[in-house]
Amino acid sequence: MEIKIELTKNPKPKPDQTKLGFGKYMTDHMFIMPYDEGKGWHSPRIVPYAPIPLDPSAMCLHYGQEVFEGLKAYRTEDGRILLFRPDKNMARLNSSNERMCIPLIDEEFAVEAIKSLVKVDADWIPTEPGTSLYIRPFIIAIDPKLGVHPAEHLLFIIILSPVGAYYPEGINPVRIYVENKYVRAVRGGTGYVKTAGNYAASLKAQSEAEKIKYTQVLWLDGVERKYIEEVGTMNVFFKIDDEIITPSLDGATLPGVTRMSAIELLRDWGYKVTERKISIDEVADAGRNGRLKEAFGTGTAAVISPIGELKYGEEVMIINDYKIGEVSQRLYDELTGIQWGRIPDRFGWTVEVK
Ligand SMILES: *Cc1c(COP(=O)(O)O)cnc(C)c1O
Question: Which of 63, 147, 229, 323 is in Cβ range 3.0-4.6 Å of 219 for a Cys bridge?
Fold first, then answer.
């Protein structure tokens, strides 16, 4: 399919690169492609960024039939533009689509659509250290109908947002609240899907944790509230003695691209990495016995986020003295080095936008 491009006649002024924050500014263009039953996905276009008309009865507004993705474009020091494993994001988008009764997309075409849009808005990729262009592909159901049924009309849209360095002063350990009242997902549900409803369901726990000065919550499984699943918008890893453990993907945990990359790197470096069930009690015991060496989250936004403190009920576990662990630092340096093209990409993870 050929992507038609209509350029804006009113380019916006670019924001100050030192004050980007996250997701506050949108670029000049967006990609949009409708799906209609009988026609399939068709008429892909890049158009000036603008509000989209939606019927007030559009299904996504009522029943949340929606999926999204999140990845970044990085500007290297020598001016190239890199994407990090976009094929994995598009494969995950299709896995989300399958669960949400959304027609599958052509993954290779979707990567091409991302590349075309990033090329059109290449001037928006910030160049300050640590900054990047966040890419948000998403699909919404737009049938104007209040009956509960899978949609026959949808829109696949991609928008772009220049974002700041997650940690302007370098990586910093965060405080995490172990959530034992609310749950995010259950097996058989949509925990492994990147869909809006999971986030809507998580807001209350997140805002209660923030009120008592915790950055994010650690989610436990929805049945026994015993096994660890993930942290807010990140997957989670624990180093106990010499073993690095991350919860196995059992259907309630989001399969992060950063998680996958961290596992591959750690194994390549010779660490023992285990994907298995791990209970909060096992982590707490390891903390009490001095065997819990490190804990960190992984995700596209922060890359690696060391955990300095876990609060579980009345117990407060301080991890590695609030310092960045050796493994966290090494992963952060390697992943960001590959993403910004500073070090060789031995795994062929980056894709250049030319
Ligand atoms: C997107 C996301 C992650 C991290 O995935 P990455 O592909 O590494 O960015 C983790 N948990 C949740 C709930 C997410 O939505």
Answer: 229
